Structure formats: C-alpha cells, structure tokens
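HUMAN: Mind making up another protein with tokenized structure?

ASSISTANT:
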Amino acid sequence: MKTICLYFEIHQIIHLKRYRCFDIGRDHYYYDDYENERCITEIAEKSYIPALVTLIEMAKANAGAFKVALSLSGVGLEQLEIHAPRVIELLQELNETGCVEFLAEPYSHGLSSLANEDCFREEVMRMSNKVKEVFGQTPKVFRNSSLIYSDAIGGIIAEMGFKGMLTEGAKHVLGWKSPHYLYHCAENPNLKLLLRDYKLSDDISLRFSNSEWNEYPLFADKYMDWIAALPEGEQVINIFMELQALGMVQPLSSNILEFLKALPACAKERGITFSTPTEVVTKLKSVDKVDVPYPLSWSDEERDVSCWLGNAMQREAFNKLYSVAERVHLCDDRRIKQDWDYLQASNNFRFMTTKNTGIYLPRGIYDSPFDAFTNYMNILGDFIARVNSLYPVDMDNEELNSLLTTIKNQGEELVQLNEEVARLQEALKKAEEKVAAPAAKKPAAKKPAAKKTTKKVNNSFHNR
C-alpha cells in the first residue's frame, strides 16, 4: 500500500535595513521593522491563515485518515508571535486534531550545519525545546534549512537522537534509484531518510497555476492517478514544500486549496493513505543507504549549496560571520544572541547570488547582489565589533576553548553547590521539626495559686 508524506515549512525572512558604513559603531539596530511587519502580515492573510484553516477542515473531515507534517524556523515563529498571532492559534488548533507532526529545524534557518557543529547542535536543540513549549510535541524527525544534507550532517543528527531526517531526492545522488523508498544515513543506519519527490512537489508548489504547463489544469484525481500508477513496490511518496506556496506562489484564485481538500478522498478511492514522517520511519524498513559526501539541498537545478555559497562574495560573508561563532557562543547578551540568529538566516546569502536560474529572485531593498553584499558586510562589521568588545579579537581559539571549559566546569560546580545547599536546607528543616515535635506534645506547667493567697491576706487586713 502506498502512503503520502505531506510536509510544509514555515519561515519568514528578516529584512535588513539600509545600513551605511558611516553607521558602523553608531547604530546597532539592523532591521526594517516596517517591511518585516508588512511582509509577514501579507503572507499570513493571503497564505498561512487560509491554508491552515483548510488543513484543519481536512483533518476534521477525514477522521484521522489525513495527516500532515509542519516545521517552523525560530525566527519565523518570533515574527508570527509579534505580528500574526492568529497563525499560532491556528497551528495549535491543528495540533489539537492529532493529525499533525511538528519537526525540528535550525532556529535561525541558517547554514550553521556547514560551518560550526557546536552552533548547529545548539540551534537544533533550542528549536526542539521551542516546539515542545508551544505545541507540546518533542520532535523525533529533523529537517535542515532548505533540506541541506550530507553524510556528516546526518551523523550529527543521529547522535542527537533523531529517528529520521527529510532531504532532497536529487538525481545526482540517487542515480537510478527511486525517492519512493525509505533509506538510511551512510554514517549511521539508525537515522532514516525521507527523500522529496521534487517533480510531484513542484507540480503543486511551482506549476499548478501555470496555464502554459502541458498538464494544466491539474485536478486531484489526475494527481492521485499519477501516484497510483507508480510501481507497486514504491511505498512512500514524499511531497515537501513551503506553506506559502498555497496562496502566495499559487494564488488562491487558482483554486489551489480546493485541489488540496480533494486529495484525501481521491487517495482513499485508490487505496492510498497519508502518514507522518515518524510513522514512516517506524513502520517501514530502509532498503539501502544513501551516500552524500557533499551537501545537497532542494534549491535550484543543481540541488546543492551554490545558491548561498557559489561566489566569492557569499563565501567571504559566510566565513566572516562564522569567524566569531565561538565568541557568540560564550556571551549571554540577549541582543547579541538575537542578532546572531537573524544574521545567520540563509536568505542573507541568497540575496548575494549571481547565478542565473531563470526564476525571478526578489532582492528586497537591494539593487544587485553586490549591493546586498555591501549592506550585509557593513552590518556584519558593526556586529563583529560588538562581539569583540566582549571577547577581544587577540584571544585565540585555544584561549576561547579554555575559557569555555572553565565556564562549563564552573556551571557544573554551581549546580552541585545548589544541590548541596538544597539538601542541607531540607535536613535542617527536618531537624527543626523533630525538635519542635516533643515540645508540642508536653503539657503546659500549672501556675502557682498566687491570687488565692493574695485574697486571704487581704481579708486578714480588712478584719483588723
């Protein structure tokens, strides 16, 4: 029996403001608040809200037969909490149906998995904790920014205890193999891999409303016929896309949501089910490992990381940013930490691409990739100066590692001391209760009959 694993991702770009070299050292706020609020409000109204309402209706109407997976970046979730809390309410309502699984991803939606393992691990755990806090689910499956994956990244994720990971079913990796099976990580077979069917995914997210497409118009029954016609042994069809594809990339006027609502009924008629990623990795067996020595992603024709690190400008900005990763990890300044999350976001490097992909790339305030690079590097110059003011630039990595070890040891000692204080306080409390108990049970001593004696004396006096 075939099953569909349907997944949507929610991430919001943090727009940087125009920042001149003269602002370095004078202005430490880097963001275009107006554009951030305008952008996420528009996406929420045109995409997230109607799409989530539709998913809730589908979950309730199909009595557990329809299932979906979602993941959110931490920076995206922060923007929703501030500017579009209705989206959070709908996500929680969808969660209450029991038909959705929330996955983990890097908090910043950045590229730390390609640069700094400690930073990457910290981000993943922070996002997992955030999912637990907001939705009450502990993520068991991981999804990296833009589905970036390699054998080394898979090994890290397996060590962190995740059971599965989503990535791209790229042709240059799979070769003759089909993405419609469950695979496992080459470094650790305990980590199962769900590979995206980019054709079936892009048929919905990119081509659905294109009147020049030879399959236009696409109806739910025809789409399910394609899936049903796949070879019998191909068990899982992974359809992954951004949630904003429903309403923004494909406008609501294209009837994209009506198409989506019709999928469960058409699937049921053909004996096709829906499953969450955790259900897939626990119920199905892996058929083979996938060797991915170099990072792949779901972006562009190449399905690699060249859209973020393909030219000298991007690599210079990337290396400069992560040159202070250890220092940022040391600090506890809330503003530094928040700026670190926002400056890591992958779109900052995407704006600098010089690739001609044939697809329109909105660059926001930037006139060119060179303009994006200049603006980002100005901001980065100010940010690095702030970090270095906390931890001087002449402190080498060995000193930093020593300091990290010292801080870690001091933290462990502090925990032990706190536990010892708590134990002593509890022992003191019990001792006081033990001493007080006999005193409470002892009867009160009788007072001498002073009044009676006094009365007798007084009477004798009056008799005289």
Notes: Residues 450-464 have pLDDT under 50 and may be disordered. The longest strand covers residues 3-10.
